[in-house]
Amino acid sequence: MPALVVPAIRPPASSKSKLYKTPEIFKDLDRRAVEEAKQDPSSFTDLVRRLSRKCVTDLQKVRVIFRWITAKDLNRMKFSETEVTDSPMGLLRGIKYGTESYHNLFKRLCSYAGLHCKVIDGYSKGAGYNPGSKFSKHRFRNQWTAVWVDGSWRFINCNWGARHVKRTDDRMTYHIDEFYFLTDPDEHIYQHFPDDERWQLLERPITLEEFVHLPVVKSPFFNSGLKFVSKVKSIWKAHTGKVEVRLMVPRIMNFAAKLKPKDAGVSHESLDECCLIRTINNQAVFLVDLPSPGRFYFEVFVESDWSSEAMDNACSFLVYCSRVSDHRLYPQVGCFGKLPICGRYRISEGSDYDPLIVSSGQLTIAFKVPKQDLRLSHTLQFWKPQGKVLVDFNRYAFLKSHFDSTAAFLIHCPQKGLYVLSVCLVDPAARKAKPVVFYRYLIDCVDEWKQAHILPRSSSKWRGCQLVEPISGNLVSNTKVLFKVESKNASEILLSVGGRWLPLEKTAEVTWQATISTGEKSGKLCLYGRFPSSDGKYIPLWEFAVKERTVGEEVHSLLKYL
What we know:
By secondary structure, this protein is an alpha+beta fold. Helices cover 16% and strands 37% of the residues. The radius of gyration is 32 Å and the shape is elongated. The chain starts with 15 loop residues before the first helix and ends with a helix.
């Protein structure tokens, strides 16, 4: 019987996405493979026969073999010392004790299934590899496989495909990593460099030096659909102490960043506040502000499931810093910009798409909020880098207007420095109606704005209004103040002061106003509104603090008339 002719080594005719769109098409095959993995196979022939039954295509055969191998939990398996070496159990025992490899097992099963498979030797950027590290004869050596599927060679790494995940009980479990099943060559090359350049399966093979200079990119980078905005290398030079990395993102995602010293003498703790992460439209922007000259590792982590606390390493770089200028620390509150809940409620920015805003002291931030019954609120905090703490400055921001599809917050910055504005929503229809942050801004106030003052407190229960004046949250007692509100839908606007309820007069189609005395004593002054949608109830709108004049203020007031 003539030997099978080994196909020529050449780049695949199409990408992985052309073979299949989603792993869901393998759902039944995967289920059967996982069930078979619970049994101890007696022979290669019997195992492949059971796995490949009902398999029509080579793609299906390759998948079921890959899934069976990645489902075997060697940590829980017990082996007899008398296992036959040339058997499935013998090979699995060898893998557990380091005398065999997943790649040889995969190749053996492929041969029994009538599939061409090649074990490839080369270098890899795996565990222990850091950006910029050099390769040598015995360092970072590895193996992986290529299998002939649908008329092309395709890469498979069963070892890395079986991801080790630590559970809460400290036991290791295996989860499949789809990236290592039929990996496209242009992505595979970021982690694998074969001794034989033909097995790069690229139209233009790269050199080992070029491989070293590729950024260290892990499977979560590709699994999350990330891309670099521009061509980047693994080693960066920061001549001013600052580095910026930009990624294209397919959706709103959660990111984290970590800066680590390569050189001794730099504390890890001193680097925690050197990274700023923000999302702008379909980009994630990472700013690194280095504290001193030296060499540092910069790592980016990603988690597409925002509710999860686990983060996966996506990519990393080595940064050489020659000098530092204007070093700055940033508050570590997570990503600035849109959070996932924005997509659920179709909330978008009204103006500022970059969540890092440079201001001279006063600014208005607007949103488009299509869902009408959402309640909006906020927190404003001032960043003190000396103590690495955020201080409550909530009274320097308030919800000024909230109409059917738009909302606007007014912010005053009384000091130079950084402010964190977190904008929250409450959906009354949600099972747990509690405030959830949907957008986070970092405001960089570059001037001390002397006109800054405390602003009114805004309730979150209203919509269809705008406070025109006053916008001061502190009012002086025994003073006449013009109160002016714009609202098309209000049936009545009232002011509560000193136990009295005083109405505002509707002077135009949307304008309500009245000049009212603040009363003789300190206390609170509140505006209320009644709307057709409030079932006759009065809804709190804004609250003001009334304070008695001090002696100094009285003298200053009298001097104005002299």
